[in-house]
Specification:
mainly alpha; three-stranded antiparallel sheet; minor pseudopilin epsh fold; 2 domains; 256 residues; binds manganese (III) ion
């Protein structure tokens, strides 16, 4: 089913069609899944669509082809990153929570108490979730920050350029492996920060806390084939392939 999804996706680069398909396919997955990962959906979940994706043992499809983000992110890197690294986190996360009470928990709840769940859940759950956010906030096109997001960015950072510089610095200066984030704090303010390894702002172990809006993976596996040690060049290239439509959607949903 994933393959069909992927094929249709490539032909129909259409957000509405995509959302519709996700709904239909998720229903299908839930019905056919032999052991469903019941990351439960509550009526007031902040990110309904994402939560639905997490209700299945199916590894989520990449929302575009491997070469879609060329030349900024090369096809070989995308293939290895998605099909090996991300898939391994997904499989290990499923194994880590199988047969435990966490199977019946939402991913947000798991992260909110991840310190109790142990390193396998923290590292693989984060590795699974962070990449889903990352793939979705990448894309090629002419999308822009919405008027609401632009206003909030200007208010918080002074200008879009200042925000971009702050976010890029967070990505460039994260020592070792990790992620940089634009996120919405619990008091509904924009903030930029970074996390080590596969941690994210939803986790109780994270010093930065909030709802992720935009992220960049700064593990070497995300850029080494094309950029080698030049993380700064990869971070600069990233701005050419930000899917602002998705960031706008996440922002609007996080504000609710
Ligand atoms: Mn990665």
């Amino acid at each position: 089913m994933n393959k069909i999804f992927h094929l249709v996706f490539n032909r129909q680069n259409n957000i509405k069609m995509r959302k519709h398909l996700i709904k239909i396919l998720n229903l299908g997955f839930v019905l056919v899944a032999t052991s469903t990962l019941t990351l439960a959906e509550k009526p007031n979940d902040k990110n309904d669509r994402t939560m639905k994706e997490f209700k299945t043992t199916e590894f989520p499809a990449l929302p575009y082809s491997y070469d879609a983000l060329e030349p900024y992110i090369d096809a070989r890197t995308m293939e290895i990153h998605y099909d090996r690294h991300h898939r391994a986190y997904f499989n290990n996360f499923v194994s880590a929570i199988k047969g435990t009470a966490l199977e019946n928990s939402s991913i947000e709840k798991i992260f909110a108490e991840v310190s109790k769940a142990g390193d396998a859940v923290r590292n693989n759950g984060g590795g699974f979730y962070n990449h889903v956010i990352f793939w979705e906030n990448l894309g090629k096109g002419t999308s822009k920050p919405s008027a609401e997001l632009t206003e909030a960015i200007n208010k918080t950072f002074g200008s879009f350029d200042k925000f971009r510089e702050t976010f890029s610095n967070a990505a460039k200066t994260r020592f070792g492996s990790g992620w940089a984030w634009l996120y919405l704090t619990p008091d509904k303010k924009l903030a930029v920060g970074s996390t080590p390894n596969q941690d994210n702002p939803l986790m109780d172990v994270s010093p930065i806390k909030g709802i992720p809006l935009l992220t960049i993976d700064v593990w070497e596996h995300a850029y080494y084939l094309k950029y080698q040690n030049k993380r700064a060049d990869y971070v600069e290239a990233f701005w050419n392939v930000v899917n602002w439509d998705e960031v706008n959607r996440r922002y609007a949903e996080a504000l609710k």
